[in-house]
Amino acid sequence: MKLAIFGIGLIGGSVAKDLRSSDFAGEILGVGRSQKNCDLALQLGLVDKIVSKEEAVKNADLIILTVPVNYLVEELIYILDHIQLHQVVTDMGSTKGIIIDAIKDHPNRKQYVSSHPMAGTENSGPSAAISNLFRDKVCIICDKEKSNEDAVSLVEKMYGMLGMRIKYMDAHQHDMHAAYISHISHISSFVLAATVLEKEKDEEAILEMAGGGFESTVRLAKSSPEMWAPIFQQNKNYLLEVMDTYIEKMYHFRNLINKNKNEELKNFMMEANEIRKILK
Length: 280
Description:
The chain is globular. The mean pLDDT is 91. The protein has an eight-stranded mixed sheet, sandwiched between helices. The chain starts with a strand and ends in an 8-residue tail after the last helix. By secondary structure, the chain is an alpha/beta fold. It folds into two domains: 2-169, 3-Layer(aba) Sandwich (Rossmann fold); 174-277, Orthogonal Bundle (6-phosphogluconate dehydrogenase C-terminal fold), CATH 1.10.3660.10. The protein contains twelve helices and eight strands.
């Protein structure tokens, strides 16, 4: 099998690492926008060769899109316009609804499988690629019934090789859950980091006083703005609802502290502790 990966940074590079070690594909082709990243991906052995998107679509059996979501629709439509009946394309973007809606009437829609592996780190680029990034994590396949059964089977096999557990979901349902579980966490981290940097000008003091709690909370603020800004924009309808609820809870928390309602404050935190039942 020939595999083509559009975007060979953290996600694409990590996919390439694990699929190469599992012998899933005989050859891995890379397609990238940055010559620097393309050269590095070759140097690191993530891909066998760098090719144009035209060559990738002509030769690959399975095409994986790991580009930023603001490029996804354009790239996906190009691929569906030129794809052959034996070929399959999937994407690994964090937003699904806007992509699926854009290609819902395409004659080759059934050869596309919409997926989102729930895995990543705050780092980016080919050098950030790591083995076993996806192992034991969850992958969401959206609108499975709108894809060809053989296409879905191939994508499921690929994620099985990556060691992922597969769940199925409607695309817009996925976007709502992603807003609550993933996207708001990144926003909170970006905002906290910006708040600390504005109020605390002494970088040495930050380093000296930063404990594990602070580091783990702001870790996501090191994530790529080029990747996350388009995600926030594409999922804004669900995300704005989540942010309004978050701000409401923050004001309530502030009010409890301000008015010395210690018992209510403790009860609020005890209710939040219930997350332990979900996150072991």
